[in-house]
Amino acid sequence: MSTTTNTLIAQLRVLLDLTNTEIQVAETRVAQARTEAVRRELTQNADNGRDRAEAIERAIRDLGGRPDVIGPFLGRAAAAVKALTEQAQPFDEALLGDLALEHQLFDRARYVKALAVAAQESDVEALATRLITAHAATVDWLTTVLAEDALGGPAALRRTPLQAAAGTAIQLVNVPVNWSVRSLDKAVDTVRATPLAISELINRGRRVTDVATKTVAASRDAALETAEAVIRDGGAEQAADVLHSVRAATGALDASELPVDGYDDLNVSEAVSAIKALSNPVDVRTILTYEEAHKGRQGVVSAAQTRIAAIAQEVVGIS
Predict the structure, then answer these.
(1) 3-state DSSP call for residue 157?
(2) Nearest Cα residue to 124 out of 206, 13, 200
(3) Share of the chain above pLDDT 90, in %
(4) What is the pLDDT of residue 193?
(5) Centroid of chain to Cα 106
(6) Mean pLDDT, the chain, as a whole number?
(7) Are the C-beta atoms of residues 17 and 68 closer than 8 Å to each other?
(8) How far is CA 206 from CA 149, 200, 209, 216, 277, in A?
(9) Which ranges in 120-195 belong to alpha helices (H)?
(10) Whether the model pTM is above 0.90
């Protein structure tokens, strides 16, 4: 067996281990999918990864080598460690970890192709070409998700609760504290002024009805709206803008505050057309969140998600 063939087998074994990790990562991401379409895509990615792993195993055997039988177990362990670690990371750091894995797979697949050409192994060359195509597509997808998040989202993947908390903490730390103590105290008092009966409903919590839940949400939203106004009146525009973004992110804006005039009166096709005309990702996100919170029309939600992805791809240069 030549030195090139030995190197080729060794690289295929590394690719197999990384592919098993990739499969497990895709499966853990399914729970974070924002839409059913993304959930199906991630599930299909995991299935495709298993097909690639089987093809790599066959290639190793055909070259006279033996696949590492503990590879799949190592892949699961690596993905489990990664999943646990990133729970305390901001969302973007977790995605950057996924992207680093895919880049490693992509670059090693290109190296394997060069080795296969040198060894005149046409079947392995064809396999490497298949791997390059698959990982290039995944790199583009993850880059798009990162860009969506950078532009304010919503990304195709949802944050876990811990990731959301980490992101909010970073945002608050970076907000200049330039409002007066008096203005802040007034805003806090406004939020605290939510009727005591509503707080009691939350605390009891065992058998909260849908009506009670909506009442709690409405009171919270009204309190936040008033707090924003109080802070803005106090001259703290940046702090008020942060609070406004929180309201937009939870779908708590009034219809009159939306970037599309008369949005509540638009049917599905009209809403989709209006979304396609938006160029600011913040505006698209605001409409999407409002739609999810109030109307829930899947055609509109999908159109908004597609528009955000298109803007993100344009920003990062993906055609």
Answers:
(1) strand
(2) 13
(3) 27
(4) 46
(5) 21
(6) 75
(7) yes
(8) 35, 11, 9, 15, 45
(9) 122-150, 161-174, 181-192
(10) no
